[in-house]
């Protein structure tokens, strides 16, 4: 449905500018309107009327009672209302614009209203939806193996309104729409002949960009928080007499060495990288899982659940390991990044020792004495390079942060400095 067809359908006599630049501006505003129509009618309303409404009807008939609609669709109803309201406002702007013979563009009053809609409604509402998106995908993934839920999804996806789109394709639509708003607004701003109006549209686009950047930070923080929360319960911290065989402690004295709980050690940390490697230990190769945090490195041994006795795949992700009930026993102790040194094993030494794609992590104490050495083997040379790059970057970032703002003992994130 083009702008020309819209003009032909109007019963009112509207003025259409003969100025090519003015015409392009009208078309840019029309693109914002029509793309919002597609988003509202072909995506949001399909989610609501086909998927959400069907689920509600099934639950009224005592089917899929345990499926939580909010976990799948979040604030979908609110999104529909906001988008419909925005369309009405845009339509009024278009009619007012075309009713003016000169075709000057949106008035400042209309632009202020538009800015208010983005700041108070659209961005806020979409942010709420986007923060739930990752959890919604995980929830959907966990539900799909069920026969009853799978039948419900397939029945809905066969609807003509879906136009061969799957539920996953529709769930991501609000995220894609949010990222497109700045492009559409700047496209209009470029075609505005009045400088003040162009600046106002640029301000609105910048506000949406800022909202997107803030959202990305919140999503990353939320994903990290949820992953670390799951991991905290799966970590096993061994007491010193189990960790170090030389530390003989009679059973009657063990109560004097109460283990300090380390459960909260990772609670406020950022997980920078994680993955499976192979550790060379006493001529044996054992599977280990490494967790690189912003201040320390954990080397853990994977303990498989009783249900899964098969050897773990190299590319198995952390989420899947946690889902299968695996635990991670911390070997030795956390390695502070300001006490960590990396050594690359070149191809010649790797071939001689029979350890391809390997590198060494050395743990130093405050007197620069090496108190631990770990020979780790990656699945490929590229995986090895990635690990070394991540470790070197994390060490450099921590040392730079310490030089600018040294950590103090009163801080909950304090780790002892490597300097004497």
UniProtKB/TrEMBL annotation:
<dbReference type="InterPro" id="IPR035899">
    <property type="entry name" value="DBL_dom_sf"/>
</dbReference>
<dbReference type="InterPro" id="IPR000219">
    <property type="entry name" value="DH_dom"/>
</dbReference>
<feature type="domain" description="PH">
    <location>
        <begin position="270"/>
        <end position="396"/>
    </location>
</feature>
<dbReference type="Pfam" id="PF22697">
    <property type="entry name" value="SOS1_NGEF_PH"/>
</dbReference>
<feature type="domain" description="DH">
    <location>
        <begin position="24"/>
        <end position="218"/>
    </location>
</feature>
<dbReference type="InterPro" id="IPR040181">
    <property type="entry name" value="PKHG5/7"/>
</dbReference>
<dbReference type="InterPro" id="IPR055251">
    <property type="entry name" value="SOS1_NGEF_PH"/>
</dbReference>
<dbReference type="GO" id="GO:0005085">
    <property type="term" value="F:guanyl-nucleotide exchange factor activity"/>
</dbReference>
<dbReference type="GO" id="GO:0007266">
    <property type="term" value="P:Rho protein signal transduction"/>
</dbReference>
<dbReference type="Pfam" id="PF00621">
    <property type="entry name" value="RhoGEF"/>
</dbReference>
<dbReference type="InterPro" id="IPR011993">
    <property type="entry name" value="PH-like_dom_sf"/>
</dbReference>
<protein>
    <submittedName>
        <fullName>Pleckstrin homology domain containing, family G (with RhoGef domain) member 7</fullName>
    </submittedName>
</protein>
<dbReference type="InterPro" id="IPR001849">
    <property type="entry name" value="PH_domain"/>
</dbReference>
């Amino acid at each position: 449905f083009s702008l020309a067809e819209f003009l032909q359908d109007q019963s009112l006599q509207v003025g259409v500018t003969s100025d090519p630049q003015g015409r392009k501006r009208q078309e840019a505003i029309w693109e914002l309107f029509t793309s919002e129509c597609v988003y509202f009618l072909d995506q949001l309303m399909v989610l609501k009327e086909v998927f959400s409404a069907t689920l509600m009807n099934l639950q009224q008939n005592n089917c899929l009672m345990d499926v939580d609609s909010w976990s799948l669709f979040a604030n979908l109803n609110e999104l529909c209302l906001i988008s419909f309201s925005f369309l009405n406002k845009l339509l009024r702007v278009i009619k007012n614009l075309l009713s003016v013979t000169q075709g000057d563009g949106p008035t400042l009053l209309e632009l202020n209203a538009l800015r208010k809609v983005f700041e108070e409604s659209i961005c806020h509402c979409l942010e709420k939806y986007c923060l739930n998106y990752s959890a919604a995908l995980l929830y959907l993934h966990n539900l799909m193996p069920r026969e009853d839920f799978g039948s419900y999804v397939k029945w809905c996806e066969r609807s003509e309104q879906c136009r061969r789109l799957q539920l996953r394709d529709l769930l991501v639509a609000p995220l894609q729409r949010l990222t497109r708003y700045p492009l559409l607004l700047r496209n209009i701003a470029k075609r505005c002949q009045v400088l003040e109006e162009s600046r106002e549209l640029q301000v609105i686009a910048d506000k949406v960009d800022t909202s997107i950047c803030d959202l990305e930070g919140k999503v990353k923080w939320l994903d990290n928080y949820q992953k670390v929360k799951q991991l905290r319960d799966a970590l096993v911290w061994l007491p010193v007499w189990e960790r170090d065989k030389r530390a003989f402690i009679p059973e009657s004295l063990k109560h004097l060495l109460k283990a300090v709980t380390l459960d909260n050690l990772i609670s406020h940390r950022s997980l920078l990288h994680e993955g499976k490697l192979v550790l060379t230990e006493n001529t044996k190769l054992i599977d280990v899982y490494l967790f690189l945090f912003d201040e320390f490195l954990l080397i853990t041994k994977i303990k498989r659940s009783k249900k899964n006795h098969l050897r773990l795949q190299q590319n198995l992700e952390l989420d899947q390991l946690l889902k299968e009930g695996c635990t991670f026993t911390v070997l030795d102790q956390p390695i502070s990044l300001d006490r960590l040194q990396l050594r690359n094993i070149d191809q010649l030494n790797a071939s001689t020792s029979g350890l391809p794609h390997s590198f060494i992590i050395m743990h130093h104490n405050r007197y620069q004495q090496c108190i631990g050495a770990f020979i780790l083997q990656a699945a490929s040379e590229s995986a090895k390079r990635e690990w070394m790059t991540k470790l070197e970057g994390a060490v450099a970032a921590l040392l730079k942060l310490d030089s600018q703002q040294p950590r103090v003992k009163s801080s909950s994130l304090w780790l002892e400095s490597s300097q004497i």
